[in-house]
Amino acid sequence: MDQIEARFKQVDVLPMVKHYMSSLDLFNLMKKYVPSSKDSLAEHAESLCIITANIICDNKPLYKIQEWLARYSDGLTDNPVNTGLFNDDRLGRSLSALFTADRHSLLTELSCNAIKSHQLITDEIHNDSTTVTFKGEYKNQDPNAVKLKHGHNKDFRPDCKQIVFGLNIVADGHVPLSYELYNGNQSDDRTHIPNWNGLRSLIKKEDFIYIADCKLCSSENLDHIDKNHGYFITIIPKSHKDVKEFKDYIQTHEVNWDTAFSTPHSRKKDETNKYRTYEAGKNKKGYRVLWVHSSLKAEDDGKKRLIKIESAQKALEELGPKLNAYHFKTQKQIKTAVNIICKDVSDYLDVKITMGRKRIDQRIPSTKRKPGDPVCL
Hints:
CATH class of the domain at 120-235: Alpha Beta
Largest sheet: 5 strands, mixed
Strand content: 15-25%
């Protein structure tokens, strides 16, 4: 009986990843924009496809990718892969080659392939940005790269430098469509006009709905999209006049909310979030304003508000015995302390500061007093 030699290799999700990478023609795109020299033992395209698959499947550091790849039956192309070729040095050289390549054209063609291959609907495009935090020293940065700088850090690390990463996805399956990197001190409100212009060029139309957070809500951004026949959905910041006017309006008027839809809570399966809307017409700029009420947010806000009120009341009680002593002797000092305590609940607490005088029995003898002399009471 012939002896059979068997070798076992992992499969996991790699075949599925390879299927989608093939549908996007990723290997040929990499080969087109990041070509290798003729005497190269392995193409940059294959290295970059292996790195991409690893990020999706296991996300190992470069020096661990070779070990990870050895557990699988083949590579990311039609031919079996020689795992020994893909050490961290070769992978690093491929990444350097990608950095100097025409990445914008590569990404544009990749996005077009995704739209065609998966028939993505580009009627709605969502934009959001985040920060990528860096630690350590980065000397002699490439002048063509985005700059690591201090800015508004969304990882709550203002001590670290960062870059800003903006991403566009389609509503149809939340598929990434394009991205842009910015210097670390780039403010979000200045990114929307060039981003919208880029999307218009990519999908060859203007009438898509551009959806972004409150940083989009500036006259310059909204007017640009509107004048170019585009559409947008954004959030009005709390500091805007429209928000204050609506808050004042609902204090004295009955608002007829329309039931919109309900959705299960993303974390608590037993709770349902009910949304209601109120059509407020158009603002002074002529843009439609729609107010949205969330039942779960209202409940959550109520709990947080009650905690803040109770905390402020406790702080005010503790402030009482300290009056007329320490740093709370003048009305200005006391008012400053009260304002700090009631900063977040000033609409719910009515605090009055009253000044009193204490009569002291010992007075200046009348024989020694002159008209106009002060009297201690």
